[in-house]
Amino acid sequence: MTLHLGGNTIVPIKDIIAIIDVEIIKDSVVNREFIQVAKDEGFIVDVSKEEAKSLVLTESGKNTVIYMSPISSTTLLKRSTFIKDISVIK
Length: 90
What we know:
The chain is of the alpha+beta class. The chain has 3 helices and 6 strands; from the N terminus they run βββααβββα.
């Protein structure tokens, strides 16, 4: 299964570690420093020209990538569990 993050970007759901609302990041100095270090190190991928609403932390093998998505964390969470919910309803 994959999750569409915006733009032309999709990631395997199994690789997702966390989906984080950007507003939470803005409120913390430590989190802002973490994001700045990640940008400096090249771990951040901005998937759209729009303002980011969520960060999606992924890991595949030894590669860690943080995607900045214009889609809200709530919507991404709903999309990631959508298929599971359908299979439960009979």
